Amino acid sequence: MGKALIIGAGGVSNVVVHKCCQHPEVFEEICLASRTVEKCDAIKNKLAGSKTKIHTARVNADDSNQVIDLIRSFNPDIVINVALPYQDLAIMDACLATGVHYLDTANYEPPDTPKFEYKWQWAYREKFKEAGLMALLGSGFDPGVTGVFCAYAQKHYFDQIDYIDIVDANAGDHGYPFATNFNPEINIREITAKGRFYENGEWKETEPLEYKHVYDLPEIGPKNIYLLYHEELESLAVNIKGVKRIRFWMTFSDNYINHLTVLQNVGMTSIEPINYEGKEIIPLQFLKAVLPDPGSLGPRTKGKTNIGCIIQGTKDGKPRTYYVYNVCDHQECYREVGSQAISYTTGVPAMIGAKLMLQGIWNKPGVFNVEEFDPDPFMDELNKCGLPWKEEFSPTLLD
Amino acid sequence: MGKALIIGAGGVSNVVVHKCCQHPEVFEEICLASRTVEKCDAIKNKLAGSKTKIHTARVNADDSNQVIDLIRSFNPDIVINVALPYQDLAIMDACLATGVHYLDTANYEPPDTPKFEYKWQWAYREKFKEAGLMALLGSGFDPGVTGVFCAYAQKHYFDQIDYIDIVDANAGDHGYPFATNFNPEINIREITAKGRFYENGEWKETEPLEYKHVYDLPEIGPKNIYLLYHEELESLAVNIKGVKRIRFWMTFSDNYINHLTVLQNVGMTSIEPINYEGKEIIPLQFLKAVLPDPGSLGPRTKGKTNIGCIIQGTKDGKPRTYYVYNVCDHQECYREVGSQAISYTTGVPAMIGAKLMLQGIWNKPGVFNVEEFDPDPFMDELNKCGLPWKEEFSPTLLD
After folding, report:
1. Nearest to residue B178, comparing CAs of B97, B307, B287, B75?
2. Per the structure, how many domains does chain B have?
3. Nearest C-alpha of chain A: how many angstroms from B193?
4. A377 and A365 in contact (C-beta within 8 Å)?
5. Domain holding B226: CATH number?
6. pTM of this prediction?
7. Is the ipTM of this complex over 0.85?
8. For the Saccharopine dehydrogenase-like C-terminal domain, which residue ranges apply (chains A, B) (predicted)?
């Protein structure tokens, strides 16, 4: 049916490629490109024998012209961007220049002042519309599936949604006292940044980790969850009409927060270089070298993730509550695609979004967030593609 | 009256030199020697104008012959060893070779397998006795004053001492979330080593930090104290005849233990080098470089130490309890001698021991621990020389 150019060769990309190859009737040919072509080749080699034809290429996605050249030579129908958030705009520009649809999983952030905000990408709306091209933003899990969950609730269960609480829980255990899946810098930013939520038309700020609950999550059990800002809040506040409050909650264990806090206290998370025996060394970089390699965590991580939306509102004039969530098992993901649940839950929805676009099921010129489309086909694909969801109609609510 | 050779130029040495200079009638001339003569000169320069004549010299105290040469050229009456514990035997050998008395504050440890044990130094008893020389071991605070406290209790208040609990509390606050006074390696050893205490003629081992109490210390308040092994237990178990149980307790704050534990968890206290950008770096050494310089803590440390002995036994057939302790203020010490209480409480008793030896008040050929002498003159000097002690006759007892 079509050709996809996938940019980026990290854990999420590995999942996207594996899942595309499970649908060779849609993804007939893919080109996997990144700065380090060896990483692309490594993923390709795991999929030898796939019906989907896989190419690899080297590209520096900071440079629109390199992406344009690659698109011109491979001639894809869609670009699936799972590279770095700093590169979103350069890749969107290349799509516009070449007339190709676009999809990503995380919104653009300026490299110098990292900040979650859709304004830069939403500014491309007219350009994509005029070009007859579609850009689907944030088609991962959160953002992504959480927006589809809200659209699904709106379509089937509510006349009016008043409150949305998104709860992202990771109960994975890698067996180390401390390790990070991602860049420790991003982890530290998560727990030290001020929280923010939407209420009655305004954005309200909280101190870092100020709002905490213990929530008893299905298939996971009670966990500490903390209010954070997360990028889908911005688009949902616009797209779920009349919503009064939207909040995002994430689990952090006491142990995790304690380790990050101590490392920060002693200066090991600093990005100011110190002179050590004549060599300039950034403490955070040295810490990364001492910590377990994030790449080693996949095979040893046990347990599950649970990400979902707790929604309150009214239907036919009566109050109603609804909880829709997905539970994902780290070890099952690893067995299936060689990545654990964090990458899996992001990569599968990226493939689904691209599949619906190539099939013409989600097809509208312009720049969109996932909750702006009919959620039913996406919800159906989640059940078929490894991220089945469950519903509850009287969940515990958060204050 | 006499001449003292002081070996070592760290914080304790700084205190010893200052306190010797307060008694120029006893310490007429001193020579301060260490591997780094500049450190000796720095201490000397602070005492310009002192009646005690101060010389400095370079010596590597690992090498007996260098110490012998220095002793022969300076011709002291006593060597005060406040160098590294690894160097005790080399310095004792030099004293025997040259006919000079010896004093130290911490027992010998073999450099390859650090272990608190008196056996190596007690093996010198006959040699010192035959040479008509005296060696006084462990004349700091603990070991040192704690032994004098026990001997004083034995002499004045008890026919029979049954139980001794030594409690060493440091309530100093340097204002950093985490920093160490000493080598972090030694701090880590303290909290990760198994505990040990003497009971009914046997040594009993505990898990690291297994025994914990909250003890309400005079002038400090309630603190977490943990049972540890400490070197004076070995000599007191021998010298306090018939004692049934001796334990040593030290304060560690939850914050301190937490920081050390996290740093250990993540591998930052490891002494195994890792290859970082082509350079072999020992994580613990890099951590030291990131942590506040221990030398910077002195001027900013506020609060007090409280070290003492809680003793139970009988007098005239009746049960009796006794608590004798010293409280020392970090900032007062710093004002007086430019070192905080940790160094002060060790350095003052070293000077007192040397003073009593030079005055002939403590004078017996052989190798001895402090509790083997008449405690009264030492207790008297403590009151006069900056470490006044207090007594309680119905202290709270430890289970």
Report:
1. B287
2. 1
3. 20
4. no
5. 3.30.360.10
6. 0.77
7. no
8. 140-386
